[in-house]
Model the fold of this input.
Amino acid sequence: MNPRTLLRHVSVALALAVVAHAAPQRTLLLEVADVPKAEQVKGGRFFYGDYDSSRIIQVVRNRALLLATPEELAELRQAGYAPKVLFESTDRLQLYRRAEYGPEMKLSPVYWRYDQILKKAAALARAYPNLITRFQIGETQQEHRPIYAFRISNQAAQPQDRPKVLFDGVHHADELMGAQIVTALMEQLVTGYGRDKAVTAWLDTLEIYLVPVVNVDGHHVVTSGHDPRWRKNTHDVNGDGVTGVYPEGVDPNRNYNFNWAMGGTDNKEGSSYRGPYPFSESEIRAMRDLAEQVHPTLAVSYHSQGEVIYYPWSWGGKASPDDAVIARVAKEVASHLVKMDGSGPYAVSPGGPSSQSYAWYYGHLGIVSMIIETGLGAHVLPPEEVAGIVQTNLQGARALLAQAAGPGLSLRVKDAATGAPLQAEVWLPRIDDETIDRRTSDATFGRVHRLLNPGEYYVVVSRPGYATQVLPAVKIGPAGWTAVEVALTKN
Ligand SMILES: [Zn+2]
Done:
């Protein structure tokens, strides 16, 4: 931030402070150490709502951090609680900084900044040049910072004709766990090759793509210590030339073009502002282009919080055409994810079919995709919780990678005359319905890897200008990929 911007920040903050005087202002930051579980649920006194931190900032285990007026403090005492006043200020941002960053008022070094992640990746690439390759997938909307992806395999320098798995983190700026998990996964995969049997097999047979931070600008707002509440990107949507003033920006995870208008809100101040049109944000165009080029079979997007996996979908109560496969995979991954309090595995739930990454990845490209809401009770989770959440999510990532072995259909389409790979529609009319876009093979290899439960499938391969081929009974075995070659002849 340059000094001129800082000055504007200050004046805007003052202007907001004047307006805020109209309502009773919460100037106290309280800690309540022993919140009963019964008060942490919806309707309870200490319910942690995902997007409304006007009162409750976090409830982690039994410790709540909340904002209060002096009257609310008195009420809590009367109700038998023993709230401790941690901080007092008329500056809201300072209250949030104290709550989320702790007494130091800056982010714990347990959390990675983006430059540290890139440094770590560069060191891995120097030590293991065959196993990891970095490439730029785009730049951020507002600050034009580069966004990087990493390809991991035993021949990482070049794309390989293999099943692909994509992991990403930090669509939402304050959901820092995604960057922690994806970076830890990067290290585990690269350093585990040749030592860890499963990792070695994955790098030999799959291609793994990692995007540790999608929303690089927003992540910087949080990790730099400016504003721990930041969720969206930093797009100057009101065009006033001032950035970094909460709650400006577009919600990157409401900007995908699948039922875009059904997701988020068109209110620019809203925490889930979907943007002016689908794929308006360069961060999300970068993810779109990566997914369309790579055609992953499986994908996970890490968020916080809730200890739940959302997968596609429940659309007006109707499950997705591939529900039998996707629900099975989601449940398998969740069974490896242990909640912070050790009480059991993460929950699994079909999510809505709109505008979020998993809906587009699945609905448009056929990717078995999910969002994992890591941790519970905060977006910026207390530093002492980070290692445990990363460890269990590494187990979940391994469970997902194991799913890339099939069973399923590995179909390659080529031109009968030239042998060149063809991007063609590869569809299963008895499964695929009008709610999803037609699945295709990828442009590079003419390949599609589609996870299927064992059984017999009716497959249609078509491309304009070529004679359509129908495979009326493709048998998918109980394990592994069933390889099928299809040569299309020009009309
Ligand atoms: Zn999120």
Residues 408-488 form a domain with the Immunoglobulin-like fold (CATH 2.60.40.1120). Confidence is low (pLDDT under 50) at residues 1-8. The chain is about 30% helix and 25% strand.
